[in-house]
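Cross-check.
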Amino acid sequence: MRDLTARQRQVLRMIAAGHTSGQIGTRLGIHRTTVDRHLGDIYRQLGANDRSHAVALAIYHGHITLADLSAIATNPRHDA
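Predicted model, tokenized:
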């Protein structure tokens, strides 16, 4: 399995926080379709079927941590 890029991890953290592709795109200054392309790449790399599966696999494989999710939950403007 290839390692995820920093941008892919950023998108995953925002997905885990419940943001839509449109919201992520706005926050990151990229188009929604670019977010969806990142998400498709993430699915392929992790072998995920959907957003929740991707987040679960990313946590399992250490690409994102529960601390990452905690930081997002306590600071809704956090997107790094």
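The radius of gyration is 11 Å. Residues 14 and 24 are 7 Å apart (CA to CA). Passed to J.P. for a second look.
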